[in-house]
Amino acid sequence: MRPMEFRLYSWLIKRSQEARFNLASSGLTEPDLPKMGIDTSYEHFASIHVNHEQMMKEPIAELYGVDTENIVLTSGASEAIFITFAAFGGGKTALVPLPNYEPIFVVPRSLGMRVGHSLGAPPRPDLMYALTDPNNPTGLCLDGDEEEMLIEAAGKGATVFVNETYKEFTFQRRPRSLFQKDENLIVCSSMTKFFGLGWLRIGWLIADRKKAGKMTQVMRLLSGHNSEYSLYIARQVLAKRGEFVKRARETYVDNLALVKQFAKMADGVRVKLPDAAPFCLVQYKGRESSIRLASELLRRKGVLVSPGDYFGAPRSFRMCFTLDGPLLARGLGQVSDFMAK
Ligand SMILES: Cc1ncc(COP(=O)(O)O)c(C=O)c1O
Questions:
Q1: Torsion angle of alpha carbons 218, 222, 224, 229, nearest 10°?
Q2: Residue 258: CB within 6 Å of ligand 1?
Q3: Pocket mutation for ligand 1, best pick of 131, 163, 192 (most atoms within 8 Å of C-beta)
Q4: Minimal CA–CA distance to 230: which of 57, 45, 102, 91?
Q5: What is the Cα–Cα distance from 339 to 270, expressed in whole angstroms?
Q6: How far is the CA of 267 from the centre of ligand 1 (A)?
Q7: Nearest alpha carbon to residue 201 among 227, 224, 219, 220
Q8: Do the Cβ atoms of 202 and 76 come closer than 8 Å?
Q9: Kind and range of the H or E element at 331?
Q10: For residue 173, how far is its CA from the centre of ligand 1 (angstroms)?
Q11: If we measure between CA atoms, which residue out of 259, 179, 200, 237 comes closest to residue 78?
């Protein structure tokens, strides 16, 4: 393996302390768990002796309408991405449409796979399609034809991996997944974004039993298993999912309204609103590199955004709207000011 740098991560981690307005964080803020009725007592956790892994798989299986054998628990969607390529990528070419979340094309490259960005070639067993739905950084969802194309590719023996980390922002009564339409696919999700629980590092993969078994073996060689304390908390959160959906909806609806207002008023930019994600891609005129522009935006206005170049989207930046409303409104005002000059 020749690990390549996750450039967006390096770029953001160096700068997040400087930001007065963090419009780069794609996960909702951490909820006040005790206020939401979640028991966070470590002593209580330590006094009960149960199989936390199995107890976490059960509510996930029920929510998605699958069996627990279809589920592999992972350390966030980050580990899910790595496991999927490690388990199924050997000797294959990864097809990752751009723009996309950097690890989805950097992990396969790091593992020695070839990576292409066009999905136009006829599906073959040596191809591995990998993408995000909703897309990171645009927040747009696959349309029916694109879903059909992926299902057909999987039917012809290609490996198809759909990262559904933001899918809960479609606000369905139960989580939707492309796996529910075709069990040949591999999908993943995470509690980092919609539930605001990034510190817990809880994610999962869903696949047919055979693929899930193989990915479990990779996971046992990698992290071994999740933090059981995290699982203890995450399981309680899923049991109260309705309240977390309500919290997410309130933030999302209010913040999206602010972004719509920004999109209408801001000069010199084109904002494509998302279908379902707490961010959007902002395109600007001119040839300045997005890394330079984002650095200047931070230096002059204290606003942190994610340069589009790291997603394969030059002359744009990803702007997240996960901050509390008043702070977000001020941050958007600073972006407007900056772009107007
Ligand atoms: C599409 C996508 N996958 C995975 C991750 C990583 O998530 P996690 O914290 O669950 O590892 C992110 C975070 O930005 C993401 O946007």
A1: -120
A2: no
A3: 192
A4: 45
A5: 11
A6: 31
A7: 227
A8: yes
A9: helix 325-340
A10: 22
A11: 200
From the list 4, 5, 11, 6, the residue with the least C-alpha distance to 290 is 11
Q: Could you give phi then psi for residue 283, rounded to 5 degrees?
A: -100, 145
CA atoms within 13 A on the CB side of 250: 10
pTM confidence score: 0.97
- Which pLDDT tens digit goes with each residue over 146-186? 999 999 999 999 999 999 999 999 999 999 999 999 999 99
CA angle 69, 73, 76 (to 5 degrees): 150
Taking CA atoms, 163 is separated from 1, 179, 181, 321, in Å, by 23, 11, 15, 21
Measure the CA dihedral 85/89/90/92, to 10°.
Answer: -150
Atom 13, ligand 1: which residue's CA is nearest? 26
Please give the number of the atom of ligand 1 that sits closest to the Cα of 75. Answer: 11
Task: Give rounded-to-5 percent helix, strand, coil for the chain.
Answer: 50, 15, 35
**Is the per-residue pLDDT at 266 higher than 90?**
no
Q: What's the pLDDT score for residue 205? A: 98
For residue 137 and ligand 1, the question of a CB distance below 6 A is answered with: no
Query: 255 alpha carbon to ligand 1 midpoint, in Å?
Result: 21
Is residue 190 within 8 Å of residue 197, measured between CB atoms?
no
Measured CA to CA, the distance from residue 260 to residue 264 in angstroms comes to: 6
Go through the chain and tell me how many residues it has. 341
From the CB of 230, is ligand 1 less than 6 Å away?
no
As beta bridge partners, residue 132 has 163
Spatial contact of 307 and 317, defined as CB atoms under 8 Å apart: yes
